[in-house]
Amino acid sequence: MSTNTDTDAASPDLPEPSFGLEPGALGLPPIYQVGYAVADVDATVVRLNPVFGPFDVFESDIPVVYRGAETPVHLKVAIGHSGDLEMEFIEVLSGSSPHVEWLEEHGECVMHVAFKVDDVDAECARLAELGFETVWRGDIAGTDIVFAYVKGTDAAGGHYLELTQGF
User: Fold this and answer.
1) Residue range 24-39, pLDDT digits in tens
2) With 25 labelled, which of 31, 54, 114, 167 sits at a CA distance of 20 to 30 A?
3) What is the DSSP string of the chain?
């Protein structure tokens, strides 16, 4: 075992705050959900039921706007919990979505964190001024539920922020 006694040794440089903003500067409420992109929701539920179960599992057909184009997507979703924190696991059965892209680039892992906001569109516009892009947006027919995924640069963490309204 060796010990470094050189007090002049270079320490790693810490990165600059994302977008030049200080911690908490996005002004979002606390995270209420952590979302994962997965290849197989049923297998994920079996594997993670001891940790986050019991799960509510459902399928959803949602007309969404993805990267500026209207596109249908059919999802299978499992919702579990860790205390008050909601854990969401999403499998895309058909269609295009950020989840497909995420799985191809990163595999199964955390994809987004979600925040409940009063006005999704106003928050998307505000975050756009800070360099975030709205990638995916949808409304659930017959409800006042609206959601959007916004994404900053890799320097801002690379994960999506999901903004939800009406939940």
Assistant:
1) 778 899 999 999 999 9
2) 167
3) ------TTPPPPPPPPPGGGPPTTTT------EEEEE-S-HHHHHHHHHHHHPSPEEEEEEEEEEETTEEEEEEEEEEEEEETTEEEEEEEEEEE--HHHHHHHHH-SEEEEEEEE-S-HHHHHHHHHTTT-EEEEEEE-TTSS-EEEEEE--GGGTS-EEEEEE--
